User: Fold these one by one.
Assistant:
Number 1:
Amino acid sequence: GQTPLNIAGELAAAGVKILGTPVEVIDLAEDRDRFRRMMDQMGIPMPASEMAVSVAEAVEIAGRIGYPLMVRPSYVLGGRGMQVVHDEEMLRRYMAAAVDVTPERPILIDKFLENAIEAEADALSDGAEVFVPAVMEHIELAGIHSGDSACVIPPVTIPARHLQTIEDYTRRIALQLGVVGLMNMQYAIANDTVYVLEANPRASRTVPLVSKVCNIPMARIATQLMLGSKLSSLGLKRAAIPHFGVKEAVFPFNMLPEVDPLLGPEMRSTGEVLGMAGTFGEAFFKAQEATQQTLPLEGTVLITVAERDRPGVVEAARQFADLGFRVLATAGTAACLAQHGISSQVVNKTHEGRPHIVDFIKNREIHLIVNTPAGKQSKYDDSYIRKNAVKYKVPYITTLAGALAAGKGIAAYRQSGTGAVK
């Protein structure tokens, strides 16, 4: 997606006519400082952000903005080198490892919005009018690259007032920029506020999905707009969407057995699929099935999450228990579940003696794994759980939002009553 934006200036300088969005607009949207100033003038909130070229400068900026931070090099694409930083030690380590940092190639430092819901909107614009077919809600919370996150159209948890704000901001930004053709907007909703993350004056990877779910040929219409047609002449109307579409990412981890299949700000997916059905749960189930991570309808679920995630996993665990799943949990997670009236069988981690988690996985006694990373708070690495899940083809989930969606998906599949989702 970024490649045409990168070469547009060179093509224009070489005398090539660029159709649609002018090159100057592309430059403005890609220049974070200029775009931020534009958002300030329009009264549209963005997370606090600055740029640093040294460790000392980064530490000073962090003191002003406050942790956690999202840091990334300004000179790479696709989320490469992007990381969530929780304290000064992590920031110093990141800055020390960063290469080729110069005043022309600084490190971007953004305030990271914790527990934020991410959303995006694709828009069609002719420079005078803007049409937004739908808003897409990310299932994983902020911090997972948009290309790796599962998404749903129409949104299932975003309040109507925030959807209205997202559509309003999208229209205003497209008109202010002077976009002709397609534009993709990324948003985060935190503390009851909609924040703009970035504007991409181009087709995004979500265009085929939005086109399919909304039954609108967006690429064809965008091409007509770039060639001079006006939206008013195309008769587009916003219609209620009578079904749900869930996009899920496809990952290459089965080909890379030593890689920890953990999601984060760096994009790791190599493809995507779409599940469509009358309910969100069924659509999510179908999307998982299409990625060859088919959710089990019965059996045993292993739940082992980081200490900070234990209160948040209770609702998902209750869903699985209510569905009749046998629940295995590591000691800390089991204790938390017990406090909330959910019974589980305690299972050993590998350093706690046998039989342990890997024995259960090898013996095919676990049919679904919910595991969030312990991170640096733990002296024991738990990536072996996720790696063995990939090795033995056990469906695994590494986010709390994904666990909740999986519970809804299994329940919906069962309620379809046909043995297969229609």
Note: The mean pLDDT is 90.
Number 2:
Amino acid sequence: MDSRTRVLTAINHKQPDRLPITFDAEKEVIAALMKHFGVKTRDEVWNALHADTRLIGADHHYHHIRTTKKESFDFWGIGQVEQAYSGGTYWEYSTAPLAKMETVAEINAYDWPTPDELSFESLRESRENNPDKAIIAHITHAGYFKATHMRGMEAFMVDLGQNPEIAETIINRINGYIFPAIERLYQDAGDFFDIFYIADDFCDAKGPLMSPRMFRKYIKPYLAKYAEIVHTYGKKLLLHTCGSTRKLLPDIIDAGVDLMEPIQTSAAGMAVEGLKADFGDKMTFYGSIDLINVLSKGSPDDVRNEVLKNFRVLGKNGGFIVGPGHTYIQPDVPLENILIMYETAFNECRYR
């Protein structure tokens, strides 16, 4: 069974030959793994870890994209600055282009990007280089998550409570880009990928960042629209949401989401036994190996035991793709823990 078939079999809640594996990490981790394996490319690292997936972004060609001496701006006009820390560097949001706007008219007058400027060379190249892998395509973050970057987190949360017209306008303008962008992705590059990925971080470790009523008003409708477009083209929808998603999972499933990442098991209500019992026949779990307590702080035996437990629980009857409980493995994770995680998943998590 090749990787693509293995992943799609699991998503359809059937048991493949072995547990499907996914991987991604911060650049410092990838560099360390390249050195360890004696390889020169990212694909070689993914292959050495037996990863069945490749997460590939669309290509953006926008006039907003620019770099100054202090900041880098993306195609939305959002600025970031590179910050150093003990493990390397990361990008921190620094400029929210809608932060000072006070009216709907100002927001509508902003120079919003258009999906006409998208292209998909990277997806085409990835499919050509990895014809047997499950290719996961992404374009940008989803409506709520991107709104917090455009407006600023605190300001947008205030908008949700006190300025609903502004909050709704921002989300609608963002999705006014995303909906046709997904259509373009499928029309121009539908043969080059298998799963559509979008991130929308609306939870923290204790629970949702908003009430169920707000979630159903502002977020669930556009998740359902993403799913409708994705399913029309016969693909699967993978939603990234960190933290404690349990209270919202019934609505997320009802919206049509097929896979959930990263399954932060240290968050409230996210024990794998309960997730599988309550939602395992409706949702594919993607990730789940605890980055905070096990991968970063545990022993290799702790990591191995966690992989085997999650395979036994989440992997029953398919519906599970193993990976880190955060999209990107962080530099404070010991190399030996990364290696034992992937060795265990490949060598010991077999269905037949």
Note: The mean pLDDT is 96.
